[in-house]
Amino acid sequence: MRQLVVQAALSEKRIAFLEDGKLQALELIRPTDQALPGDLYYAQVEKIDRKTAACFLNLGKEKAFLHLKDIPNGKTVTQGARFPVMIVREGNQHKLPLATGWLEFSGELLVFMPYKGYQAFSKRLDQAARKQLTDWLEDILQEEDGILFRSKAGSASKEALLAEWEMLQMQFQQLQAQITRSKKTGPLSTGTGRLEDAVQRMQQTYQPDHIYTDTKLNFLKQAQFQSSRNIFDDFAIEAAINKLTQQEVLLPNGTTIFIEKTEAMWVIDVNSAQFRGNFSKQEAVARINQEAVPEIFRQIRLRNMSGLIVIDFINHLDPTDDLELTEKVETYAAKETITTQIANYSKSGLMQLTRRKRKKSWLEETHQLCPVCKGTGHVASALTFAYQLERELSGLYRPELNIVLVVATEDVLSAFLDLGSFSDAPIEWEIAEEAVPFYQILQVE
Predict the structure, then answer these.
(1) CB-CB contact of 294 with 333 (8 Å)
(2) What pLDDT digit, counting tens, does each position of 291-347 carry?
(3) What contacts 338, CB < 8 A, 6 or more positions away?
(4) What Rg, from alpha-carbon coordinates, does the chain have?
(5) CATH classification of 2-31+193-239 is 3.40.1000, yes or no?
(6) What 3-state DSSP class applies to 310?
(7) Fold assignment, 40-100
């Protein structure tokens, strides 16, 4: 059973795809003025960097980055030049949004790409369908037109294909007219259709058997309306989402995978953990690695990992098992809607994947750095603070002192008293109700 669940009644919109009751894909849409993938802007070139063959754009309220090779027809770009662009990668605190001059206009059957000049087909279309669609193209496609056929195009009538083709061309013409009228740098189309676009994209990708929503949506007349305080709770999606920031993932066979984000990459470690079975060591290792692959790709998809992803499978010496594992990873990578490829193996045998970045990861989108640990995932222990307090008091202590007022958490106080230092000092304590070890010297007289 393939289900699409749309939660759209409140400000934050969420879309989930489930297969046999298990969460497989997730989309989050929040109100924002930031440039997001698919948004169209009329941009102005602010600076050209010939060394990197790129330029910096002014989008109005935001800046963006564009490679010069991504400007149609090889046009020469000058500072101050204006032209329409589409955002292909969301920005973050370290990088500007990435833009391209190659625009796309998407429908249920087709994607129209002005000036692209090539044809592309969904992987789900067989050779017979591709031949039929290619024959249809001869009558309507201009030399500079680019077109991509979605999977539904294979079963669509010529009339339906032509109607959508004309609609997409009309959208492009309207965009050009909008630019001519306004001539102002800024958004051309953002925000209003994000929910509809996201739902249609997930429909086209996953072909759900049923669609459920918690509010009536005009573009989803076939959906089943379900009145609910939290429709994600009804489908046990909320509980699955809450696990997306946990580092350890438990598999049904008792093994685990450990996921960690660093500044440069994502790291996934496969562990045998509680795996049990009447297998030889080689068979057990092969089985653990093979069975981890589907869950690894599920986690990559749900957490929206991107860039370099390093996977530490359990090492073994059988080259046949290694080949079978690589083939399985390649099979699952080919199914992903975002380009995912095996880059190579490190000298120590770590598998390295690359995945194209379009949006922030789930972690970046929904969480911020811990103000206590600053993103390290660790805080100093109570004993460490006790030693630190001992050193600080040593520098402050004088025999004539009347009072030293220290506020500390109970575990730090206990650890300090165990040291036996300054037992005769006039120290007064206040207990701090903090979740992590803490102390502060408030008064010295």
Answers:
(1) no
(2) 999 999 999 999 999 999 999 999 866 788 888 999 999 999 988 988 899 988 887
(3) 306, 355, 356, 358
(4) 28
(5) no
(6) strand
(7) OB fold (Dihydrolipoamide Acetyltransferase, E2P) (2.40.50)
